[in-house]
Sequence to fold (99 residues):
Amino acid sequence: MVNAPKTVKTATDRCMTSAGEALRREALEIVAQVDKALTAARSASTFSEGNVSIGFVGAATYSFPPSLAPVLRDRAPGLSVRFIEAVSNVQIELLRTCA
Fold:
């Protein structure tokens, strides 16, 4: 609660006091931060930004990454994708270590 007048009424208008102006500036910053947080949450939930590693076995080298890369680039341009060719047991270890 702000215990200071935020506006002053004149004969013809209503004007903001310095306390009201300070409150308005801070409120605008809060709204901007909320918008930024919502945008970040949406991006995270849709995986449209950030980093992702995708593992595949050698037999898929010439089909899987070349077909998936352009789709990811179009649908999630802010996503950084790393393709990792590895045998299954190595992929499992990479998943365990979050590499």
